[in-house]
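Sorry, I am new here, but would you mind making up a protein's amino acid sequence and the tokens describing how it folds?
***
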Amino acid sequence: MGIYGQDWASYQSAQPDTGGLAFVFTKITEGTGYINPRWVAQRDHAKANGLVWGGYHYPHMGNSPQAEADYFLAQ
């Protein structure tokens, strides 16, 4: 028996299938110039279906870590 979850990003639906899932991590930002246009809808969908939700940032290693963190946290 396990606990199952998924990683959701913008190439997926705003309301992916949640059957069998306990949690979801959603990509929110990447670098200092990309925001997943579906992240809010995906977050709300996960929470509405009783899933534990977390968001993440995909870094570009050539950028300032501070700038990347600030960009993510601004969302």
